[in-house]
Amino acid sequence: DKGNFRHFMAKEIHEQPEVIGHTLSRYIDFGTRKASVPGIETAGFDKISRVIISACGTAYYAGLVAKYWFEKYARLPVEIDVASEFRYRETPVSEDEFALFISQSGETADTLASLRYCKQNGARIGAVVNVAESTIARESDVVFQTIAGPEIGVASTKAFTCQLAVLAALAVQAGRIRGVLSEEQESELVGALAEIPGYAVQALKREVEIERLSQSLSKAPNALYLGRGTNFPLALEGALKLKELSYIHAEGYAAGELKHGPIALIDENMPVFVIAPYDGIYSKTVSNMQEVAARGGRIVLLTDARGAAESGNAADDVVIMPDVPEIAAPIVYALPVQLISYHTAVFMGTDVDQPRNLAKSVTVE
Ligand code: M6R
């Protein structure tokens, strides 16, 4: 049932404040402001030498964000790869490692094969899945379920942000277990996570503006997405969403990579989406925007009020997001990124919930 929405995707985008809240309530304690992930002992965060993450598509991008979090908040090295490569790489895996597989369906063939490879090599296995009775869930030592509810649209939206919510709680608790985060730091981070449903509601209020921007974008043959830090995987996700839904060719890049090649693509026909909340490296992103602006590229900047004030007028359009703590940013900024591809696809007249050539669950290799 699509409720009052035209597509399942729109409904699922709008469900996010609620389902992120449900998911968080399983993994953090809102009262004590502590992460409290059921089954976390199985991961052995106090003993392991490394976390391995493997997944496909959007779930892989959630894993890429988590890599930044595990490194920063828990000082844990992370190995991550798309499952279709990981499973064939013959990479060394050992018993003192924790391998984490992320999958909405829990049935993705390559992800399952990567899981089995790690299991054979003696690693502890954890899964972030949305479907509790899935094969990946069954074959894991510990399951961290996302409480996103059934996701019908082929494009992953609410599953992605719920995966991020679980992964953030995991990384924060790992940080406490490993003695990296103090109680105050943990409480600040958990407090930030607890605010995400409210920030998501505010982010959705930008929809009319995004719809208008998307109308002009729907005429472009190509688009670029740029971001740094945890917003770099979001740039990759934005490009994937635009490709799969609107069939417009798009690429995501780490903003600092621009001058190593993709800047050659910039001209007045190239829309460039920059995902950049104001943070410690914001000024670097402003330089990248100036390089794009100097070549006539059309910049759409997703940032907060401070970022808008310090953007040096490089952007043609600015979508002003709520001011959010760093750990919340990739989750909150995922919403406008999803809305851009949704509305562009609607203008293009493509089949939003069932894009051509795609299957919801890829159970073949
Ligand atoms: O069910 P899974 O999370 O394992 O699926 C992984 C990918 O197939 C999936 O995220 C795909 O990339 C989506 N179409 C993205 O919107």
TrEMBL record:
Catalyzes the first step in hexosamine metabolism, converting fructose-6P into glucosamine-6P using glutamine as a nitrogen source. GO terms for molecular function: carbohydrate derivative binding; glutamine-fructose-6-phosphate transaminase (isomerizing) activity. The lineage of its organism: Bacteria, Pseudomonadati, Pseudomonadota, Alphaproteobacteria, Hyphomicrobiales. GO terms for biological process: amino sugar biosynthetic process; carbohydrate metabolic process; fructose 6-phosphate metabolic process; protein N-linked glycosylation; UDP-N-acetylglucosamine metabolic process. Residues 41-180, 213-355 form the SIS domain. It catalyses: D-fructose 6-phosphate + L-glutamine = D-glucosamine 6-phosphate + L-glutamate. Signal peptide: none annotated. The chain holds residues 244 to 608 of 608 of the full protein. The active site is at K360. Keywords: Aminotransferase, Cytoplasm, Glutamine amidotransferase, Repeat, Transferase. It is found in: Cytoplasm. Its main location: cytoplasm. Its EC number is 2.6.1.16. Homodimer. GO terms for cellular component: cytosol. This is Glutamine--fructose-6-phosphate aminotransferase [isomerizing].
